[in-house]
Every structure is written in C-alpha cells, then in structure tokens.
Design goal:
Layout lengths: L12 E7 L3 H12 L4 E4 L15 E2 L9 H25 L10 E5 L2 H18 L5 E3 L1 H7 L9 E5 L3 E2 L2 H14 L3 E3 L4 E7 L5 E6 L4 E9 L5 H4 L10 E12 L11 E3 L4 E5 L13 H14 L8 E11 L6 E4 L6 E5 L7 H12 L29
Parallel strand pairs: 1-2, 1-11, 2-8, 11-17
Antiparallel strand pairs: 3-7, 4-6, 5-6, 9-10, 10-11, 12-14, 12-15, 13-14, 16-17
Length: 389
C-alpha cells in the first residue's frame, strides 16, 4: 500500500475536496455545501465512464439487501427521504428532477422466479421490518398495468418505489452546489491523492495534467477510479465495471403509471427499456445482441410496444463490488479521508446528500451499522459475485 505522506506545497486550500462529479460525488458534495461547508468538486467530465448518464432511473427498495439487511434499511431510508431532496432541489434551483413514487412492480416470466421472489421479499421484510410488498397474479397485475403480455406469470409490488430523471438529478445537484457557494472544476482526471502529515495536516490531489488542489478533508467518489486512488489514503476499494445497455423509444401517450424492473415511461413520454448486466471490461458500447435481447423482453412485457420506434440505444458502466453492496469508509491511516462507492446512485442520492455529506464533513457521526460496508471485507474474500441490485 502506498504511503499517505506528501511534501507540503503552497496551494489554495479547501475545507472539503470531493473527487468525482457523478451522482454519488455530486450528492455528497451537495450535502456538504448545504451544511455550509466550503467544498471543491473535481469532475472528470464527459470523458468519464459515468454511470450517471446510463442509469435506469429507479428509486427502488423492494428486493434490495437480500444478503445484507443493513443495505435494505439504508435503501428504505433513502426512498423515504427522496421527496425531501427533490423538493429542496426544485426550490433552490428550479429544476424538477421528475420524482414519482406511485410504487413499483417487479414482473416475472416463470413460476420458479415468482416463488423465489416471494420468499426473498418475505425474508427481507421479516428481518428488516417496514419494507412492504404484495405478490400479484396476472389478473391483478393487469388492473394496474394495461396491455400486460401473457408471458408475465406473476409479480410483486412495493408502494414505496418510484423513479426519477438521472440527468436532471445530476444537473440539479451541480446547480445546487453552486447555489450554496461550492466550486466545481471540470475536466479533471485525478491520478494521485496524498496526505500531508505535518502541523497543517491536509490532503493534496493531483490531476494528470499537473494541476493540484489542497484541502482539509477528502472524499474519493471517483467511481472506477477509486480502485487505484483508495490505497493512496490507506483504504481498499476493489471495484470493477459492469456494462448495462438501455433503450429508449419514441414518445408515447401515457399508459404506464408505475415503473417496473424491465421498463418505465419517463416524464417526457418515452419508454426506457433496461437493462443488461455484462462483463466487457471498459467497453461501454451498445451491441446488436444487447439491443435485441432488451427489445424482445420489452415486447414480451407489453406486446403493443412492437410497433414503437426505438430512437436511442446506449451502454454505460456500473461501478460494482463483488457482493453488489456499497463501500463507505473513513481512513484511519489518513484521518479526514473517506472513500464512497455505490452502483445505486439514484436510489441513494437522498441519503448521500442528507447523511453522508455531513458525515464526511465532520459534522455528524458515522451512520449506525456502517461497519458492514467497509472495503476491508474484500481483502480475504474468495472470488464470487452475488448481486442484489
């Protein structure tokens, strides 16, 4: 592991530097800025492998945390606090992030999957408490989802679920940071982060082009970049990319009030269809195979979509850990440094802003039970992936 120590150079200092301008980093930076902490957000910009622009947009609870109940309760708090964040951003920036929380449906194509789903949800609700769900047969599903296909044999519904517009959310968070006096520097590819262990202890981060910034506190929320940056401040964040492809149709008349795990109708009327889970390294290109699979599944779900025109297809890279859960950790080797990574940037945006922002700013204690999210849980783990998206 690299040393945390660096020599001091006379640079402009910030109270808090956040590396990473995607949904995770922007939400944390916004949360600190709204607490009157002077912040600097370093954003790699559009050249980044940014999951924010390929996010499916679900604000989702049911099925989260099947193998980690603390993640289930964390997700529950997130969806419950989403209206607070949405309303605050609208009042501050004038940007409507498109939050709708009418509940959400998971739809299954096999009896085996439906039975497994029921057992999973019952166990999560029993262990975590307060995570409601209802299993439905096809006839009941069609009362809420007009035009549902015959291939759907059952499903589940959670009244707390919903969706939002990820791009509008990212725009609103950046605008909110500026409104609160925070600074954002774009086109910054951070390649180094070091701890200055002297009487003015703080951190220096350096970009590939040689620019440097210094601050009293540091948050690494750099997505895939956390894997190489975290060891420099005494932390462990073994993240890897997982490609997800998404399709969008032309705008259609409103027909789908509820988001589902397979598709949703956006606030603009288009149908967003997603998503795949692919191991392709850093290749985020869309593929004919992926497009065909998504389109076929969408038509199975709602057959009338066979007449809809596809207008866009794209891929993006999720930031994953081996168990699918986030990493939240403060460095003991370099006090004042943190690493945060999560593939669930939309669902968790509210708690990243309202809870994680104050924590990394030194204004609040670490959330209870967060020891399960430390990156050290991967140091001696056998290779294996058990996702609970």
């Amino acid at each position: 592991m690299a040393s945390c120590r660096a020599s001091w150079n006379d640079l402009e200092r910030e109270k808090l530097i956040v590396v990473g301008g995607g949904l995770v980093g922007a939400a944390i930076a916004y949360g600190a800025a709204r607490a009157n902490v002077p912040i600097l957000l370093l954003d790699q910009g559009d050249v980044a492998f940014r999951a924010s622009r390929g996010n499916f947009g679900l604000v989702w609870l049911h099925s989260k945390g099947g193998n980690q109940i603390r993640y289930a309760t964390w997700s529950r708090e997130a969806v419950q606090r989403w209206p607070e964040l949405s309303n605050e951003l609208l009042g501050l920036t004038g940007i409507d992030v498109g939050l709708r929380q009418p509940g959400g449906f998971w739809l299954g194509f096999s009896e085996k999957d439906v039975i497994a789903r029921q057992k999973l949800l019952a166990r999560i609700d029993q262990e975590a408490g307060g995570i409601p769900f209802r299993m439905m047969q096809p006839d009941e599903l069609r009362q809420h989802l007009s035009g549902l296909g015959a291939d759907v044999v059952g499903g589940s519904f959670c009244p707390l679920d919903g969706h939002a517009n990820p791009l509008k959310l990212l725009h609103a968070l950046h605008a909110g940071i500026a409104k609160h006096g925070g600074r954002i520097v774009s086109s910054v590819d951070v390649v180094d982060a070091q701890f200055n262990d002297d009487d003015r202890a703080d951190f220096t981060v350096t970009a590939r082009d040689g620019r440097s910034w210094s601050g009293e506190r540091l948050v690494l929320a750099a997505g895939l970049g956390n894997a190489s940056l975290a060891p420099r401040i005494g932390l462990h964040a073994p993240v890897f990319p997982e490609k997800g492809q998404v399709l969008v149709t032309e705008r259609l008349k409103p027909f789908l009030r509820y988001p589902t795990n397979k598709l949703r109708q956006t606030d603009e009327g288009s149908i967003q269809i997603g998503s795949t889970s692919e191991d392709t390294g850093l290749d985020d290109r869309s593929t004919p195979v992926g497009i065909e699979w998504l389109a076929r599944r969408a038509v199975q779900t709602f057959p009338f979509l066979s007449d809809a025109t596809l207008v866009r297809a794209w891929g993006a890279l999720r930031v994953m850990t081996n168990d699918g859960f986030p990493i939240y950790e403060a460095s003991t080797a370099c006090p004042g440094a943190y690493v945060v990574t999560s593939h669930s940037g939309v669902t968790l945006a509210s708690v990243h802003s309202l809870i994680i922002g104050p924590w990394v700013s030194g204004l609040a204690a670490v959330p209870q039970g967060f020891e399960v999210f430390r990156g050290g849980r991967f140091t001696a783990e056998a290779v294996g992936k058990t996702y609970a998206h």
